[in-house]
Amino acid sequence: MLQEQSLITTILVNILLGAVWHYATFFICVFRDTSSFSPDKKMYQPHKWEKGGRFYSDVLKINQWKDILPQHIGKDGFSKNHLDDITVEYIDRFIMETCRGEWNHTMNCWFFVIIFLINSFFMALILTFFLFLGNLPFVFIQRYNRLRLQKLRKAVIHKAKLAEKKCQRAEGSVLEINSR
Asked: How far apart are CA 155 and CA 35, in angstroms?
């Protein structure tokens, strides 16, 4: 389709279509029901090759660059820059937001299909490279953070259960003393 057009026209058409695609996926993401972003869905499940997040830290060196990338603060002003709370409810919300972010950037990557349909093969390769370069790092950050948050969630639940058992034992001791 764009093979006969000038380089400037080709680039401008791709930028315009890409902007429309990205804004559409963003608005779908914002207005979708949060149940769509459940970490139990297959898309968000950990992969064996991620090695519990070690792939991102050891191979991609994610800790060296993740904080320099911009973040979008969600529709309710939810910042993923740092933990504001360590309750299970807050961690669950944070995990859901990582799923939302991953979904958005993954859907943005699907624009490569349009790129290949309207461009010459060589131009499509170049544009797809930049498309993936602009989205995959964010997908990696969301997955890496979610794996870490899920470990933290388990630890918080375990700690709460231990505290509950300790409290029950203490109550049992008090009842035993009072019954004497």
From this structure: 24
